[in-house]
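Colleagues,

For the teaching module next term, I've prepared a clean inverse folding example: a structure given as tokens, and then the sequence designed for it. I'd like students to try predicting residues themselves before seeing the answer, so please don't circulate the second half yet.
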């Protein structure tokens, strides 16, 4: 990843009803981490696979906002300390999961999680399996499903939960939910094209605007 980094969050922090261990600063850090990566992706700065090729630029890549509703769903599942995906019918959203253990000496699991998920793009690649960046079973089976959910162009919301689990082995369990849900077979991970430079470039949702600094669209 290269280029400038941008801050997307407010100084007040995102307030949610207390559902777990997240602070307003945690929530804003989660959103900021996601949006920095999405912005870099939209501008064609992300490595796609071990060959060193770059992922294509994206049109209609949307900026994420934080959802307290998705946090509540994610926190409820994290509290169960079962390192597996929750039943789809209980969340109506995409989901990424991550676990870390004391031996890994992680100081920030909430930020390590999106970094780990996103690393699938550089380590495994997408374009070699789907040059048009359409979601296929080959892409998913390559082990890039966490990245593709994070980069899903039409997704506009994220909410996460975190739990300290005594078993197995003092696991820290991170769950993030996304809406709209990504990883829909046959749909574009994102639309290949020029990143937005004006509001009229943002067409997925009516009334959208363009953040010209980040090249991400904003749903209103």
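(Answer key — instructors only)
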């Amino acid at each position: 990843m290269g280029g400038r980094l941008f801050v997307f969050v407010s100084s007040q922090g995102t307030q949610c009803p207390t559902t777990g261990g997240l602070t307003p600063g945690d929530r804003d850090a989660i959103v900021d981490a996601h949006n920095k990566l999405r912005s870099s992706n939209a501008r064609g700065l992300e490595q796609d696979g071990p060959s060193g090729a770059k992922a294509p630029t994206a049109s209609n890549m949307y900026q994420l906002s934080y959802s307290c509703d998705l946090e509540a769903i994610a926190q409820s599942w994290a509290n169960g300390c079962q390192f597996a995906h929750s039943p789809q019918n209980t969340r109506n959203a995409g989901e990424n999961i991550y676990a870390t253990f004391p031996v890994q000496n992680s100081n920030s699991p909430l930020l390590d999680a999106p970094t780990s998920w996103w690393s699938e793009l550089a380590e495994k690649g997408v374009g070699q399996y789907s040059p048009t960046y359409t979601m296929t079973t080959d892409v998913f089976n390559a082990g890039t499903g966490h990245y593709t959910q994070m980069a899903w162009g039409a997704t506009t919301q994220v909410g996460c939960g975190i739990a300290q689990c005594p078993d197995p082995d003092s696991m820290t369990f991170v769950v993030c939910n996304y809406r709209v849900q990504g990883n829909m077979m046959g749909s574009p991970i994102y639309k290949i094209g020029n990143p937005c430079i004006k509001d009229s470039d943002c067409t997925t949702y009516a009334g959208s605007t363009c953040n010209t600094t980040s090249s991400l669209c904003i749903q209103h």
